[in-house]
Amino acid sequence: MLDWLRRHRRWCYALVVVALLAQMAVAMLTTAVEQTPTIDEPVYAGTAVVYLEQHSLRYNPEHPPLGKLIIATGLAFADARLDPAFDGDQTQLGRRVLYESGGDPDRLMLLARLPVIVLTLVFGLVVFAFATELTGPAGGLAALALYAFSPDVVAHGSLATLDVPAAGFLLTSCWLLWRARDHPARYLPLAGLALGAALATKMSALAAVPVVLLLALLATRRLRDAAGVALVAIAVVWAAYLAVDPLLRWETPPAPPAFVDWLPFPEPYRDGMRVQFGFEDHVWGGFLFGTHYQGSLWYYLPAALLVKTPLGALALWLAGAVALVAVRRLRPAAPYVLVPAAVLLAAAMTGDRDLGVRYAIFAPMFLAVAAAGLVALRRARLPVLLLVAFTAVSSLRTFPYYLPYSNEAFGGPSKTHLRLHDSNVDWGQDLGRLAERLAHYPGERIWLVYKGSGLPSHYGITAASPLDVPADQVRGLLVVSDSAITKADARLAALIGTSTPIDAVGHSITIYRRVTP
């Protein structure tokens, strides 16, 4: 048997790679089919339909168009139609396209999610290739397993959002720069394309630009090569906007001069940056370890990652990072793996929106590669195998509720809402599951406080808001999204305090029984 395995080693490795990606694909597809639209998805899907039908940049300017163009490749097969005379805002646009365009919202949402799912699987191959080049096939398999079983990557890779594509393009750029050390003419232009794709997907990728350009300089020791990468990246951003509207029709809102005016990007991109800066000036609410607060905490993202990352993965991330720095033959790779992740995390920690680990979704990608460094130490291979297995078991146990995952030290997915909120646990994804659960309570009056973009009536939910009537009239089932519970005002808190929890849906919605005297 051992001789057969040695003779067919390559096929065995290939089979394991296929198996890991296949289970990830099943997890993401199942999640995509079962979940109703999350907060951001209808806006991106609606904007993608506008790109396809009207070639207009007027919606969702705060994000560049490439990610939505990727989503549009799936929606091209949908039957969604938008009245050219529609002039609502982007939230109204999302609802119109999903629920009022005459198509099936579930099919449309699945078609929007499929391109992101495919791209997430492709990034898994990048993780595998990067780690294999650093530490060999065993390290590649360990890194791919950590990536494929990451609950956060599975959760956000199954949504029609921009976080995973932007992070994956940045990882790809760093991997290509690593390869450019030996073949600069072949890989530097590709690294520029990947960097440009990240910038053309989400503006948070701008934080990585100085690091990527320094890595290009480190790879070839030639300043002109770094400049070439920058020029290619800028060209990709322009190409993304021109792909939507070759005429770049855009009305710039009045605004005082700012440094963004000097950036070599299209005018809609620069104005989108202004929108993002406006978001940062807004005071957002956060929730961490049972405390609701206004503003942001600098340590929010590290704390949230501690809660939402499998314990085995956390151990391997830390040990692998140490190995990359400590092991001499791995040390040259540290700037390409650890420095981008550290800079991106530092930049994300300065943000004012404590809304989820999706703002650090690059961490399980880069640090899966870093974890492979531990495989270079022969004595560590058995512990690596055990920790990867522990990670896999933890991930599989949460199936198919990946969005509200938290590790065993924090009580698992059923307890996440006690420590985190928003896209960490409750992003509106369980409206369909709620409709199925309410069928078990026939004839009950439903009072609903729902945080999400879904339309309850489409799923057969007939409910009223408990906040619109006197408290003594609220009798029956009080259904509240867990994120609404974390930031409940005095009125909602009083209703909840005088009700009895009787059920939960998807670890994101709580059902109470309320009986008034």
Task: Describe the 3D structure.
With 517 residues, the protein is mainly alpha-helical. The chain has helices at 2-7, 9-34, 41-54, 66-75, 90-99, 105-135, 137-148, 151-157, 163-180, 184-199, 209-220, 223-244, 267-281, 300-308, 311-326, 334-349, 363-371, 381-398, 431-438, 482-486, 490-497, and strands at 285-288, 291-294, 446-449, 476-481, 500-505, 509-514. The strands form 2 sheets. It has a 4-stranded mixed sheet with strand order 3-4-6-5. A two-stranded antiparallel sheet has the order 1-2. β5 (500-505) and β6 form a beta hairpin. α2 packs parallel to α7 (137-148) and α15 runs antiparallel to α18 (381-398). The chain is globular. It starts with a helix and ends with a strand. The relative contact order is 0.11. The mean pLDDT is 93.
